[in-house]
């Protein structure tokens, strides 16, 4: 093999100096590492003198296999007998060599030196994380129970939870313990968590202000400042908005003054400046130049409002309290954090004692004990002398404790570390890329070791590497990502085999939904999957790619294609769509215990263990195994309304009126008793197999969409039960509890592999794809929001900056986010965004020849706005504020390409002249994909007529046609619900003036589901606010307005912040829209009749079905319920009004009328029945977005 100069430098490196190899994606790092070890063996070293640490057991096995292959090859290549003999001896020693995970190495240290720390050698490895989790739960329950008599514990509990609901606090303790397990000095780290709360007598004198709070405040205002500068630049092009230039100039100067005030290091001076400089009154446009108003609304006004909201949030989040108040809050919070740390230490003490009592040792114990052993000088010297070189693969993913072990084994100059900071993606497993960063910077300056870059990429075609470079050149730097993506760090296409004329493909496809989405059961993900399916069908058999093995062109096959996603959430939908298009697929999916086929069996096991559980019992009877519908289940319940459902089942089996149902339940109870006998003998494996055999459940699910995978999952459950039969989880209850713990695991409990054959599209997460490569890569859900949950909740925790908490006043129960929490949350966000950036890098660099990125957006305007970078003035890299403002990979990619001029934001599909990179952007209309999917379905389900059937005397075609053509006479009614809320009805009104729905022959039944907690009620810190969240929050404010009061801007601002706890969402509510409504004709009428005003009025009424649906004459009635936004009484008249926050459209008033008139008709009908002596004189739609009143 022809090695590059840098590869040769790595291969022939002598272990007399520490070496860090920064190996980029596709650079052949494993090959180089293997060759390095081989060359040392060839020079006379022994394999058992090397410690080679790998990230996983699989990587260790591959390392041994490849090293064995290289040694055998070397034996064949060398003619010297001494060398041949030495290499043969290394083969014999290879299996016992120290090549494996650091966990495995730690256990070897313990096995040999356990006496040094007084450890009992009789222990069992607690290798199963779920078993450990159950033990943790048992210990923490006992720890809490013993702490309730402590007043300090009760104070801690009151801050985070309550005596009746202490689960939240337990989760915090478990989380801190998990983080502490990855630290070399766990107790010291725990003690440091509250250091930022100890501020002394000044808020602005120490490290907390200088390094954390002041820079974050400044960054926030700088971002707002540049938003104003960008808006001012756009204003200069508009004739009607000239008056905005001095207004925006004043605003920019005001913000610059606030930025300068931070340099004073005087909290009161900063507050005074802000109080003296409120946001100035907005300017007004003059003129009606065509198109300017719409441009201003879409591109300028949104930036001004975002800057204003950001400026105002400085006050609401930070400057609301004076320095003395913040110092007191910090002092009180410090006491809470201290007690939380002490509670965590107490739990850790109890947990350690419990494990010793049970003679258990988990992996964190193994590493911690090994580190304690290696701290003994004589042992450390002995271990160090045993190894010629310490090699670490995937060095970017080690943690603090593992680093301490490795440096204890090394002799300060013989460490050989290989990794890629750009691929550090395991922060959720406590990996700390800071270790790599520190050495990368130090060794780059020749301090403590040597740095060698391996940037040559032998995997990808040049256009793919260039696309990745174009993105990450703007995204990644030391501030956000840990490394400057410049020069030698950039990928360099080094594979010379690819033909020069190979088609270059880097395609970004965005599904555009302008808000007119009408298909409730066809969402954004469905549209993206349909688009991918169509592209795959266009590729396979029609396009050519380069076969790297045969070094020739061939047609694209299914096996060449891999689909990557951030999570497993979309995989069931993918299997359904691909099955429809006859695309074979292999899914490396997530937690199989949460799949439908498994959940049915688990419900069965639960009622075998205890049949007096209503929900699992109903689930089993309702499942396809017994097939009872809701009417049958209700009929069973009628025979016994007092006791649990199982009692009702037994009663019906004895006295039920329906003979068939009675027989089914008798058989069910007999089966259940037989299963309970098997379970009593702890024969869980036999029990599961007996259920499979009796119910034919495996055969049933194999016929469902994704049947092969489902069948594999059922077999995996059986095999897993068999594996567990050897440990203490032998009883059915213990097995169920164990499986439930697995189902709730945060890490994937992967689905069983379902082999669809080599000719299938592969589907996996980005994490699962690390280290792999594929000819064609699709990255799905490009627009998926980056997970910000680590920055939310009652506590945030960071390895470097400690914890941030909300402080709850013990008397008023008012919750105050501390300054420390806001600062730590921002630091966590920076780290999380950096890791997501690296995850995107991993995804893009998996592709060898073609890259397809699939995302979605609202309108093209929304997409263009999301790709703007107003703060980014440095041509070298995007500003940190712009990168942190992004909420998806889609935004990052668009920002990077737009800033360098590769995308024209005024014409997104227009491609700039760029000889170094070929890529395209395709905007696909949502409705176009719906039509495409509908056409595909129509083609797939084309009818087969009698003339298509060959003549067969055994077939009675006339009777067959009669059966097949039979139409149920009440088909229309069967597709309709007997219970509706008005919101379900309003989407399908045909005539705005009639209380009728269109014909429902081909319409699906309205699906009634339990509504989840609205997102606006949850925290959305750091995430984009959707129009739905914003509209819901706006409705809540309108509901809370006290029309008796003077409705000033200050009143509305205070109401918003008191009502909406999420600061981002509160800032998104548009005050000017609320003020318009208050001062409108409707607002004046409401104020004049405030005593008769009613809001959020609920109602329920029965309406004849024929008044709601056309073509219905059965005489049945439909129960309709709803909530009326508001109405008031004016003499004999009732005035009905309804708020709408729908986005602005070309025919705004007509669209609102068409969409909601039928809904208001139902409200009017309800009011007429409530007030029989009065008339509903007016029905008013208040369109807030367009500031229009529509009288129906």
Automatic annotation (TrEMBL):
GO cellular component, one term: cytosol
UvrD-like helicase ATP-binding domain boundaries: 2-461
Catalysed reaction, written as an equation: Couples ATP hydrolysis with the unwinding of duplex DNA by translocating in the 3'-5' direction; ATP + H2O = ADP + phosphate + H(+)
Protein name: DNA 3'-5' helicase
Pfam families: UvrD-helicase (PF00580), UvrD_C (PF13361)
InterPro entries: AddA, DNA_helicase_UvrD-like_C, DNA_helicase_UvrD/REP, P-loop_NTPase, PDDEXK-like_dom_sf, Restrct_endonuc-II-like, UvrD-like_ATP-bd
Positions with a binding annotation for ATP: 23-30
Keywords: ATP-binding, DNA damage, DNA repair, DNA-binding, Exonuclease, Helicase, Hydrolase, Isomerase, Nuclease, Nucleotide-binding
Residue runs in coiled coils: none
Entry keyword annotation includes Phosphoprotein: no
Signal peptide range: none
Location of the UvrD-like helicase C-terminal domain: 488-771
Enzyme Commission no: 5.6.2.4
GO molecular function terms noted in the UniProt entry: 3'-5' DNA helicase activity; ATP binding; ATP hydrolysis activity; DNA binding; exonuclease activity
GO biological process: double-strand break repair; recombinational repair
């Amino acid at each position: 093999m022809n090695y590059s100069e840098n590869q040769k430098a790595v291969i022939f490196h002598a272990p007399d100096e520490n070496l860090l190899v920064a190996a980029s994606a596709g650079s052949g790092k494993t090959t180089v590492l293997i060759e390095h070890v081989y060359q040392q063996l060839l020079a006379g070293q022994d394999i058992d003198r090397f410690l080679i640490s790998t990230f996983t057991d699989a990587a260790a096995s591959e390392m041994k296999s490849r090293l064995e292959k290289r040694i055998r090859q070397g034996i064949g290549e060398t003619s010297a007998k001494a060398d041949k003999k030495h290499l043969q001896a290394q083969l014999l020693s290879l299996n016992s060599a120290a090549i494996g995970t650091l966990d495995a190495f730690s256990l070897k240290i313990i096995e040999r030196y356990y006496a040094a720390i007084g450890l009992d050698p009789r222990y069992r490895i607690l290798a199963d994380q779920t078993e450990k989790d159950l033990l943790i739960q048992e210990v923490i329950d006992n720890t809490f129970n013993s702490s309730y008599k402590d007043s300090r514990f009760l104070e801690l509990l009151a801050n985070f939870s309550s005596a009746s609901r202490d689960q939240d606090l337990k989760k915090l303790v478990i989380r801190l313990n998990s983080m502490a397990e990855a630290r070399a000095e766990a107790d010291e780290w725990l003690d440091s968590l509250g250091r930022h709360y100890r501020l002394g007598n000044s808020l602005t004198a120490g490290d907390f202000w200088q390094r954390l709070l002041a820079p974050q405040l400044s960054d926030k205002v700088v971002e707002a400042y540049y938003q104003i500068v960008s808006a001012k630049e756009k204003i200069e092009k508009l004739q009607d908005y000239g008056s905005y230039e001095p207004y925006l100039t004043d605003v920019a100067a005001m913000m610059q003054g606030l930025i300068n005030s931070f340099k004073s290091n005087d909290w009161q001076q900063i507050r005074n400046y802000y109080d003296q400089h409120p946001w100035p009154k907005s300017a007004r446009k003059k003129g009606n130049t065509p198109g300017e108003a719409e441009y201003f609304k879409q591109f300028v006004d949104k930036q001004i409002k975002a800057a204003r909201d950001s400026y105002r949030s400085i006050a609401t989040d930070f400057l609301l309290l004076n320095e003395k108040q913040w110092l007191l809050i910090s002092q009180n919070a410090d006491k809470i954090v201290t007690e939380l740390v002490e509670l965590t230490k107490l739990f850790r003490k109890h947990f350690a004692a419990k494990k010793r009592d049970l003679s258990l040792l988990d992996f964190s114990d193994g590493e911690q004990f090994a580190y304690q052993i290696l701290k003994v000088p004589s042992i450390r010297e002995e271990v160090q002398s045993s190894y010629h070189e310490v090699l670490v693969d995937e060095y970017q993913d080690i943690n603090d404790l593992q680093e301490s072990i490795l440096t204890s084994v090394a002799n300060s100059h013989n460490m050989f570390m290989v990794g890629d900071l750009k691929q550090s993606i395991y922060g959720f497993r406590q990996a700390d890329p800071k270790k790599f960063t520190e050495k990368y910077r130090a060794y780059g300056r020749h301090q403590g070791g040597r740095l060698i870059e391996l940037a040559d990429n032998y995997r990808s075609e040049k256009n793919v590497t260039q696309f990745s470079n174009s993105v990450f050149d703007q995204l990644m730097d030391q501030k956000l990502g840990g490394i400057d993506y410049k020069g030698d760090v950039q990928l360099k296409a080094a594979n010379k085999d690819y033909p020069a004329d190979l088609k270059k493909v880097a395609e970004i496809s965005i599904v555009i939904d302008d808000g007119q989405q009408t298909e409730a059961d066809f969402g954004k993900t469905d549209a993206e999957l349909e688009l991918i399916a169509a592209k795959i069908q266009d590729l396979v058999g029609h396009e050519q790619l380069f076969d790297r093995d045969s070094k020739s062109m061939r047609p694209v096959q299914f096996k060449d294609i891999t689909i990557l996603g951030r999570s497993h959430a979309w995989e069931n939908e993918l299997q359904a769509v691909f099955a429809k298009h006859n695309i074979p697929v292999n899914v490396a999916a997530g937690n199989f215990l949460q799949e439908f086929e498994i959940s049915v069996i688990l419900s069965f096991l639960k009622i075998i263990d205890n049949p007096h559980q209503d929900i699992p019992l109903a689930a089993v009877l309702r499942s396809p195994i017994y097939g009872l519908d809701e009417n049958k289940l209700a009929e069973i319940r009628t025979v016994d309304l007092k006791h649990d459902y199982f009692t009702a089942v037994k009663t019906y089996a004895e006295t039920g009126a329906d003979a068939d149902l009675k027989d089914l339940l008798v058989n069910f109870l007999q089966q259940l008793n037989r299963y309970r006998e098997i379970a009593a003998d702890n024969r869980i494996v036999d029990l599961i197999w007996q259920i499979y055999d009796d119910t034919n459940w495996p055969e049933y699910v194999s016929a469902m969409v994704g049947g092969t995978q489902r069948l594999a999952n059922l077999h995996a459950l059986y095999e897993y039960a068999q594996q567990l039969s050897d440990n203490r989880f032998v009883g059915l209850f213990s097995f169920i509890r164990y499986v439930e713990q697995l189902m709730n695991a945060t890490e994937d409990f992967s689905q069983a592999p379902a082999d669809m054959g080599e000719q299938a599209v592969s589907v996996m997460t980005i994490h699962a794809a690390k280290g792999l490569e594929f000819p064609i890569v699709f990255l799905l859900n490009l627009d998926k929001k980056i997970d910000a949950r680590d920055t939310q909740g009652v506590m945030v925790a960071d390895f470097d900056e400690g914890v941030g908490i909300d402080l709850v006043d013990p008397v008023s129960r008012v919750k105050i986010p501390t300054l420390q929490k806001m600062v730590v949350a921002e630091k966590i966000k920076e780290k999380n965004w950096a890791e997501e950036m690296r995850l995107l890098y991993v995804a893009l660099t998996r592709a060898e020849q073609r890259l397809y990125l699939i995302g979605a957006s609202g309108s093209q305007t929304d997409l263009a706005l999301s790709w703007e970078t107003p703060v980014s003035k440095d041509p070298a890299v995007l500003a940190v504020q712009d990168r942190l403002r992004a909420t998806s990979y889609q935004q990052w990619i668009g920002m990077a390409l737009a800033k360098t001029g590769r995308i024209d934001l005024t014409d997104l599909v227009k491609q700039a002249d760029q000889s170094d990179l070929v890529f395209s952007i395709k905007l696909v209309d949502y409705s176009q994909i719906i039509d495409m999917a509908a056409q595909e379905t129509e083609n797939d389900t084309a009818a087969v007529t009698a003339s298509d059937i060959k003549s067969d005397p055994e077939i009675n075609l006339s009777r067959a046609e009669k059966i097949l053509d039979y139409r149920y006479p009440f088909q229309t009614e069967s597709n309709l619900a007997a219970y509706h809320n008005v919101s379900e009805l309003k989407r399908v009104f045909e005539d705005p003036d009639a209380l009728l729905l269109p014909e429902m022959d081909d319409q699906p039944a309205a699906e009634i589901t339990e509504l989840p907690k609205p997102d606006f009620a949850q925290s959305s810190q750091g995430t984009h606010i959707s129009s739905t969240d914003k509209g819901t929050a706006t409705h809540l404010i309108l509901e809370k307005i006290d029309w008796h009061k003077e409705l000033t801007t200050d009143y509305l601002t205070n109401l918003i912040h008191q009502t909406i706890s999420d600061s981002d969402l509160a800032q998104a509510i548009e005050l000017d829209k609320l003020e318009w409504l208050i001062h409108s004709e409707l607002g004046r009428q409401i104020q004049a009749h405030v005593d008769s005003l009613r809001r959020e009025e609920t109602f329920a009424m029965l309406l004849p079905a024929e008044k709601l649906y056309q073509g219905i004459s059965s005489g049945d009635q439909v129960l309709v319920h709803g909530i009326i936004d508001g109405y008031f009484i004016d003499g004999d008249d009732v005035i009905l009004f309804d708020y709408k926050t729908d986005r602005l459209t070309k025919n705004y008033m007509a669209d609102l009328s068409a969409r909601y008139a039928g809904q208001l008709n139902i409200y009017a009908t309800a009011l007429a029945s409530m007030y029989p002596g009065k008339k509903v004189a007016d029905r008013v739609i208040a369109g807030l977005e367009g500031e229009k009143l529509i009288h129906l």
